[in-house]
């Protein structure tokens, strides 16, 4: 019983990190019709910068902020410097972001060296809680709390504000939104910046769960995030949340109970959802 | 008048003939390392051609194409290493059939969606295969060797003839020519024109009575078949297959080769494979650790500025020169 509860809690906290990563990916996919394949590398970049700042200043909050800004700026450079010249050409845009996987990974390897960075757990997240006889690190609850808080803000932004209304309208029919005299460019740029920034910040936060972050994690996280948005459905905060929790919990249980197939339990879920509901569990449209 | 036509034909096919002649006589004057490089170029040329059938002719952005290549290569390596099946006539067809079988299944799932989603699903399924061969634990790990990969495959022996590096080059060359001509014939058949019609306008093709799903599905399987043949050629050539040859990195590289050569030109694939692998050959000589950076810059630069591809441009240049 104790292991089941602990695994469930681990799965939920992992799912929260996945949710944060996937929400940015889902936003740009819904708005601009493209998948930023460099999203995983941007995630790692944020983690590296954030953990460097954490070690230098000792402040977790500053680290999260620095990681987020570094990742956001990287996303901004990709969008403003490259993607906007390929306006409405979705496939080339996706391929450009694929090229940036190589560029960013290799540049970071060059600057930082190949060693993974270990987690920074601030003193106020230290300690543990005993649940059903299993000791459970407190920072996992903190991750859940931060995830829920950011998720709530994102949901409020997308569902209850004017900007959110423009975003949702842009996902359904970008041309019509333009025709109504609303300039979607700043919205797209903002989505790219914040999507990347949340990914970077979530790496600084989530690394407490993983223990360390290295270059291989970029690709892994990208693929999990892709699985999350396909399972949950593109373009809504709720979809990303449901997909992330589902994948997070199933993946964590797979690692504990079925280690032999744990590397691809997530893909089995993905394929199952695709066969039953190609637009994802809570998808807007396909 | 007749002379003029004959002359035009000579000029049209002259360069292709020269290239074929150079490739045919290569082992006579080039070093072994160059022959080995060209063997690899031919294998990847075929692999990229099979991707071109999907991307350039059918309009399916498949991003997990290296998986079929890897499935064939792994199947053959496993049969040879763990089951002692060294006969080329058993192992090679088994590997290719496994690739086709995988394409049959993956196609069923992936063709439920289209566009960028198709790209994502094929990417995920490619990584599924990567995950399977990358697993180090359990009986599967023992079979595939996990992240270490699987080696111990030597050049094949066919009908009592043992291949060496040079003779295997000819074997690859002959296989490439046969497969490339088959692919060329497919793209020029009514089926191939049907695919191009679907690429241009799927709704209109459907209205004209084409079963677009079936056309795309068959194209996907044919792509898997030729990727499998390339995987077969590769594992005998390289003697070793690792998860890196299967995953997203490998699939992305194929896209770069495809775009550099010219999407939808079929023969451009060989050109793209040649450019990238030659570049890799020289770059890995002096700065192997910066190769991914160079590759990434190539990727971005080609897509931003050079999406037409080399082959159409070379053909244009040649035609202009001949008109003078």
Describe this structure as you would to a colleague:
The complex is a heterodimer of chains A (286) and B (324). Chain A is mainly alpha-helical and 286 residues long. Helices cover 74% and strands 4% of the residues of chain A. Chain A has a two-stranded antiparallel ribbon with strand order 1-4. In chain A, strands 2-3 form a two-stranded antiparallel sheet. In chain A, a hairpin with a 2-residue loop joins strand 2 and strand 3 (134-137). In chain A, helix 9 packs parallel to helix 11 (265-276). The longest helix of chain A has 31 residues, at 2-32. The mean pLDDT of chain A is 86. Chain B is mostly helical. Chain B contains 14 helices and two strands. Chain B has helices at residues 2-29, 32-58, 66-83, 88-110, 116-134, 138-144, 165-187, 190-200, 202-207, 212-238, 248-261, 268-286, 291-305, 310-323; strands at 157-158, 161-162. Chain B has a two-stranded antiparallel sheet with strand order 1-2. The chains are: A mainly alpha (286), B mainly alpha (324).
> What is the helix tally of chain B?
14
What's the story with the biggest beta sheet of chain B? Answer: 2 strands, antiparallel
What's the total number of strands of chain A?
4
Q: Any low-confidence stretches of chain B, pLDDT <50, length ≥5?
A: none
Shape of chain B: globular
Poorly predicted runs of chain A = none
